[in-house]
Amino acid sequence: MRKGLPVLAALAVLLAPAGAGAQDDARYAMANGCFVMKPKSGGYVAKSGTGYRSNGGAPASGEPLFMKATELGRYLLYTRGRDYLGSANGKAATEAQPGESADWSVEGAAGSFKVLAGGRALGLAGDELVLVDPAQAELFAFEPAQGCATFPEIDTGTSGTPAQGEVPYGEVRGYADAHEHLMAFEFLGGSVHCGRPWHRYGVEFALRGCADPQDTQYGTTTETAYTGREPSADRSGWPRFPDWPAHDAITQEYAYYKWIERGWLGGVRLVVNLMVENEALCKVYPTKKYPSCDEAASVRRQMDDIYALENYIDAQSGGPGKGFFRIVRDPFEARRVINQGKLAVVLGIETSAPFNCKLLDEVPQCTKADIDQQLDTLHRQGIRGMEVINKFDNAFGGVAGDAGSAGVLVNTGNKVVTNRYWDLQTCTEGSGEDTDKPQQTPPGSGRDGYGAALGLFLPGGSAPVYPPGPHCNVKGLSALGDHLVRRLMEKQMMIDPDHLSVLARRQLLNLTESKDYKGVLSSHSWSTPEGYKRISDVGGLIASAGGGLDLKAITGRGQDAYIQSWRYARQNFRNTKYLWGFGFGADQNGFAQQPPPRADAAKDPLPYPYKSFDGAVTLDRQKSGERTFDLNKDGVAHYGMLPDWIADMTRRTGGEMQNDMARSAEHYLQTWERAVGVIEPRCRSARGKFRASGLFNVSLRAGAESVLRQSGQPATRQGRVWTWCVEGKRNQGRKVSVAYTPEGTSALVASDAQGHRAGRVERGHRVTRKLRARTKRFGKGVLITRRGKNTRTVYLVRRGRVRGLAVASREAFRTKKTLAGYLKLAGLR
């Protein structure tokens, strides 16, 4: 896809004037391009046996090198022989595999680059390429070439580019994945998971499977215990992928970066990546890369990793900020990123004991000061959302638990970590579905990834016998939990009460509602009807796991369960006061199986190729190495199959579901805006007076973010125009509008509502002689009057009556034509 673009882009940069910015652009722009190296002293670098020389010939005599970026400004130099330009014994040498000696930093200006690795630089001894002190480095130009070998990589199976928004501050379209674990290759000690989202040396290293016999043994056993998959499954990876990725393969990588890229190309516009850890399972798992199992340390590692992934994707794309994968820190940045046609990545936490705040014999193992210090640090690093609890009771409150035989095993894990089993009692009468997970002591049919894995390695024993169901955890939100939630609100972070006990969730929502705090959501089907309703009532996003919401009304399986969940949520939870979308929480790499192929897919398959929801990208079957993936046969085998899954569902249900899912990213952003203090959408008063500065607190000459913070969320944000409804029956369908300049500054504030006045004039008034005498005709049906040097009051007139009013800045009334254009934007013409 677009294979010629890297070389053309690199050539354009290499020929550009070499200012400071151009120097950096030039060293980054060579990524994934084909070049020959030209020493400043003359000739071209060519292979000579196992070494390299400057041959003094024409460009075609040089060795064409594919420049595979390992990070920003660093490259593997991949030869025609499918090996690497490296070094040995003080000389440049061919290496069969990449390593530190073949990982070169390119530094300097275009046409005069130094090439360095391991503290040494490439230089010339006569015509032989050798290693020298950096001060004696030869300077090289990299000239575009042909004939390079193709570096191994996964293709997205797509063509086209996601549509960009008309303006950076407009409403976005696309899917929100509210629950993902992209860095889970590090969790549980770093050995349970095969593969990773990227490797600096490429896909052959990132997805090579499980070579360690112990990992293969325990990983396969874990898979079998959870999924029932064949224990002899082949866990080898690139390029064959004989048995993974698969929709039910929980310990292998789902989210290689090219699969994430396909997900983005297919419509995903926002991902919440949660750093994940579980101390109990880490401790009992037999093999570990990180023996301490410290949850806070694991979160720090994963934070470093996700920024490294962003760097790596930027490196593949030609420079800082150029990749599709953008980590964002506030809703305004996220909106700009999505409107640039990129993927906004929000960082959060889901661990069993955030900040290592465990509960041991009912005694918290942390203090308020510990919480404050660690939360401050993580917030500075970019964490913007949090689940308070995961699988076990902790110092913040009680957990909802797990059902069935998995519940027995996870409860045993709770005993290992806290020295107590869950304290579950019969719920009060009338609880309905607002209960925690039902418990049983004998093994049954319940199956959960954590529970299955715990069951393999935990010591023998059994959970207590509980009273008759339905069951509710008597632990609610603790004093430390109350403190944490207050601190999360102070920091304007997104709060996800999934996994909390019914009592703890109820108390958490009581607290957020008492503070009129709107930054809450449910990310992946771990709530109850009361929780969903209360979250939706304050405008929070509901995102369902692929298997649907865990409600009695949801009786389907696979896709049918998700479709039923969307319909049920739309009918029972939707609050029409707010924009509404329906998201998903894929929970990939979090020991969560993915949607399988439909049972009737052979009779009614998703047709390939198909178009993304915005029509901008065409998606065909995705090929990874030697394997081709097809939703109809494989289900959601990896992240890149999520758009296929959505396309198949919306094909079956029609435009309403498509629209609701495509609004989920906007819904998340608006929830986040309310979390950071933006007033929720509400109609403007039916009585108001235009001033030179605007109407109400909708101001002229303000940026979009400033208008939003001053005026609250508008009802619509279409292109360069935002609108607010107006109170009163007589003003149904009327609006207050603000129209922005192309640069994003408000240039016209307008209203067509009755009761909004300029002086004593409002909509419906006759155009009197007095009004005509003090105004100037400024185009057909437009009168203006001066409101200072750079502002005009505008009267829109039709059939002798005023039909609308506005105030305009000089940018809007510069000419009759420009003012007519702004009035049309605002919907008054």
Structure notes:
This protein has an eight-stranded antiparallel beta sheet. An eight-stranded antiparallel beta sheet has the order 33-34-35-36-42-41-40-39. Strands 14, 15, 16, 17, 20 and 23 form a six-stranded parallel beta sheet that branches. The protein contains 23 helices and 42 strands. It is of the alpha+beta class. Among the domains are: 5-144, Trefoil (Acidic Fibroblast Growth Factor, subunit A) (Trefoil); 404-472, no CATH class; 688-825, protein yfey like fold, CATH 2.60.460. Helix 4 crosses helix 11 (449-457). Mean pLDDT is 91; it is low at 1-20 and 441-448.
Distance between the termini: 44 Å
Please describe the biggest sheet, giving its number of strands, its sense, and whether it closes into a barrel: 8 strands, antiparallel
Low-confidence stretches: 1-20, 441-448
Outline: globular
How are the strands of the biggest sheet laid out side by side? Answer: 11-10-9-8-5-4-1-12
- The number of helical runs is 23
Estimated radius of gyration? 30 Å
Fraction in helix: 25-40%
Q: Structural class of the secondary structure composition?
A: alpha+beta
Which CATH class of the domain at 5-144?
Mainly Beta
- Strand coverage percent: 15-25%
User: Taking all residues together, what is the mean pLDDT?
Assistant: 91
Count of β-strands: 42
CATH topology title of the domain at 5-144: Trefoil (Acidic Fibroblast Growth Factor, subunit A)
Question: Per CATH, which architecture of the domain at 5-144?
Answer: Trefoil
